[in-house]
Give the backbone structure.
Amino acid sequence: MLLEFGLEPKVVGADWRQCKYLLEKFGFDRGRLIAAFPKQWQRAVHEAAADLSDMDRKRVETLLARAKSALVRSGRNYDPELEWFANAVAQQAVSPFHAIIADQNSDGRDDVLVAADVDEEVPLFQSSHGWQVQRTGAALAEAMGPLLSYSREIWFVDPFFSVLELPYVETLRTCLAAVAASGNVGAKLQIHYRENDRRPPTDELERRIPRSLAGVIPAGMSISLHAWAERDAGEDMHARYLLTDRGGLSVEAGFSAVGPHQNVDLHLLTPQVCEAKRRAFADGAAYKQEGPVLIIGSDCQVTRR
């Protein structure tokens, strides 16, 4: 699972070498995320770096810019009258972090890591780059939750995805509900699938969508359907992915929610692989677009592009 950590600003800003060591361990591809806690977490890091030399302060700024993609909104309450550590500990009883990384752990808490002792072999800091979940819409949506919540672009890539088939609709329903619940209603949502002779023609698909997707797309949201065909001697469109601007996952068995009696393997993609997969669909370099793009609104009205 993707793990969210509370990272004390002063342990990042006070020493650029420690800043580099810590921030390199975070990212959607590393399985670890940094909570923006407080909301102006980056500003707090800059303030902690105020006493560094100009060169070291610039190093911290550069490292922060590189790690921005690992920073996610927290939504947790923060009392400016209290120290950061006290705020973080208070949140463990309300909306817990996977762990707190702080300058010290005088109380010997099990959910706190001292920054100087952080190592990828420490059990509380270990993260998996792959995991297995049940093939249900709820399990898939939960496992993909951070990517659904924090990404501006969300692409479901599955050659067999069908908005007319209940197992796929169930996954779509739960994933879109997760997007809406996180407040990420402005995300650009797309489904990319492979065209074949067994799929209904575009006119029939448009007629059937309102019934199939009734109540599935939350208010204020829309999703676009992109049909593709393989090029002669070109790439095979077989693998299934969740691709976003923040990172991606391979979804081995696809997005069909066939039931809890089966499992699906998920694996984090490196930024390079994720971006290469996105480019393959964004510019049609790897596949041929088949027919118009269909845009479906929350009222299930369909428009062509």
In short: The first helix runs from residue 9 to 13. The CA atoms of residues 26 and 32 lie 5 Å apart. The two ends are 36 Å apart (CA to CA).
